[in-house]
Amino acid sequence: MKKNLLLSLLFIFGLISIVSCAQDNELVYLKVDSVSVSSFDTYPEWAPPPEPKATIDGSLITRWSSNYTDEQWICFDFGIPKVLRKIIIFWENAYAVDYDILVSLDNQNWQTLLSLKEQDGGLDEIEFAPVKTRFVKLLGVKRVKPEWGISIWETLFLGQKADNPEDKPLSEVYPNLADKLTQKEKVAVEPVMEEPQASPGVLTTEEFQKGVVYTSWGKAELGSEASDQTLEYLQGLGVRNIAIMIILVQDTIQEKAISIDPKDTVEDKALAHSINKAHSLGMKVMLKSHVDVKTGEWRGEIIPSEEWFASYKSFLVHYAQLASRYNIELFSVGTELSNTTIPRWQGLWDELIKEIRQVFPGRLVYCANWDEYKDVGFWDKLDFIGIDAYFPLTAKKDPAKEELISAWQKNASGIDVWLKEKKLDRPVIFTEIGYCSADGTNIQPWVAFADIPQATIDQQEQSDSLEAMLIVCSGYPWFKGFYWWNYFPQERWSPLGYTIRGKKAEEIFSAWLKKL
Predict the structure, then answer these.
(1) How far apart are CA 150 and CA 168, in angstroms?
(2) DSSP codes, 250-309
(3) What pLDDT, on a 0 to 100 scale, did the predictor assign at position 15?
(4) Which residues, 6 or more positions from 107, have their beta carbon under 8 angstroms from its beta carbon?
């Protein structure tokens, strides 16, 4: 009897020892005290906010990005020495093909822990023998593209619990990242087209569209975690309509053939994912094609021909079929193609719209430029009149809000008179409306001040211009919605740009969405 009791006790103590040992070997997240970097990306519109700690905040929507030269680095300080065993890096598209990992106890004497070559970006999970260090530096040696810097969404440092008793498991610190790591493999599996999700409902001509133009110049970006989180953020603001931009290109304004851009045109798989994500959030979707000219001219200067229309129609029918399959509510047949909407080409537009109607059962719109909409001859073939509403307002910088309201009253009255004269009973939506956060943006709202070195920041003028439009236009029965230009699928640092994320205008925008 005593022998059996002794064996039982030994067995229990053995189990306890095994469990204790397993807990000691558990990897925990090593908390970082501070982060420093060699440089920031300062390119207007494309750079993230200059915050090194974006790489340790648990979010895959914020990032650090360097300038566009070699040997850029990011350095992490634990505050005290810790024993490191594993590093996980979530790279943005601008990843380092070759990079070194260095460690130091004093931030002066550095030892190369690893030199990694011919990497392919995405998710790097790097394991090695335990090393005691306080500082860890990632040094970019070779960039995937010389015109880019290096950019990181998130970096995780892990070590054994026994060596780092004060630190906690990743699942307690950043459970969303822990869940993601359990689902991902280092070698990415080629994604397949997702099955369509149901629409939140048919888009009626009476409902008010509360939208943004969702702009991406990246073939896979709309399928990313950052894009998903941005759509969730927009829904939280009160956005209920998303206009997803699709980039098509042609070499010159005389070119007769349109094509996709291998870098800028969203791939169908990523497009389908973003549509499904928006629908899952209760948001309705517009597909909005933009034809960009590689030589830099505006799309309104494109010189059309029968061959051009044939090429354009082939792409539009493809996207209309995709829109039908994925239950999209609104489809744009074109954007700011001013030279093509003159009477000479009316018959080809009628044929194009008729063919799209055959494959797409939802609503149709054309996105006319602010100085083009009165000349478009096929509004009666569409469900909505779309205007990219970059109307010039005043001739002065930083005008009073009352002056902006007065200017918008003239513009809205002009639309109202035109609708009555033409006896058009179609609702009007502003398929684009936007102002830069720059002094003088109301004078020529179509000018991208982020590209002007002498421009000065003025968030108030941006905010006042937006609110003036809403104060005036919301009083007209034909005004059935607007889409703010623009939001990116990730957080970007744009002190002079159109995006209003984190600016004064976003407060006005969200408040109006709630009461419209």
Answers:
(1) 29
(2) ESSTT----B--TTTSPPHHHHHHHHHHHHHTT-EEEEEEEEEETTS--GGG----HHHH
(3) 43
(4) 75, 77, 134, 135
The three-state DSSP-derived secondary structure of 73-125 is: EEEEEEEEEEEEEEEEEEECCCCEEEEEEEEECCCCCCEEEEEECCCCCCEEE
Which one is the CATH code of 27-174: 3.30.70.1560, 2.170.130.10, 1.10.150.120, 2.60.120.260?
Answer: 2.60.120.260
Determine the pLDDT at residue 270: 97
Consecutive 10-residue averages of pLDDT for the chain (516 residues): 50 44 78 98 85 95 94 98 98 95 97 96 95 98 94 97 97 93 58 90 98 95 93 97 98 97 95 98 98 97 98 98 98 98 97 98 98 98 98 96 98 98 97 97 95 92 98 98 96 89 96 94
**CA dist 410 to 156, 171, 177, 419, 440, Å?**
56, 57, 52, 14, 19
* Pairing of β 73-91 and β 34-37: antiparallel
- The pLDDT of residue 20 is 43
The bridge status of strand 123-143 relative to strand 73-91 is antiparallel
Distance CA 16, CA 340 (A): 78
Q: What is the DSSP letter of 147?
A: T
Tokens of 472: 């005036």
Cβ-defined contacts of 167-174 (< 8 Å, 24+): 167/28, 167/29, 167/30, 167/31, 167/82, 168/28, 168/29, 169/26, 169/27, 169/28, 169/29, 170/27, 170/28, 170/29, 172/29, 173/29, 173/31, 173/58, 174/29, 174/58
Type of residue found at 14: G
Q: Would you state the pLDDT for residue 376?
A: 98
Burial of residue 515, with CB atoms counted within 10 A of its CB: 0-12 exposed, 13-18 middle, 19 or more buried? exposed
Q: For the chain, give every domain's residue range.
A: 27-174, 209-515
Is-cis flag, bond preceding 486, omega within 30? yes
Q: What is the pLDDT of residue 191?
A: 59
Task: State the residue for tokens 């009626």.
Answer: 204
How far is residue 462's CA from residue 469's CA, in Å, rounded to a whole number? 11
Helix (H) or strand (E) holding 354: helix 346-359
What does the alpha-carbon distance between residue 344 and residue 215 come to, in Å, rounded to a whole number? 32
Strand pairing report for 363-369 and 384-388: parallel
- φ and ψ at residue 103, rounded to 5 degrees: -130, 155
Strands 209-214, 479-487: pairing kind: parallel
Fold match, 27-174 / 209-515: no
Tokens of 209: 């569209």
**Phi–psi pair at 208, nearest 5 degrees:** -90, 125
How high is the pLDDT of residue 209? 98
pLDDT score for 24 = 61
E strand or H helix that includes residue 333: strand 330-335
CATH number for the domain running over 209-515 = 3.20.20.80
Check residue 188 and give its pLDDT. 45
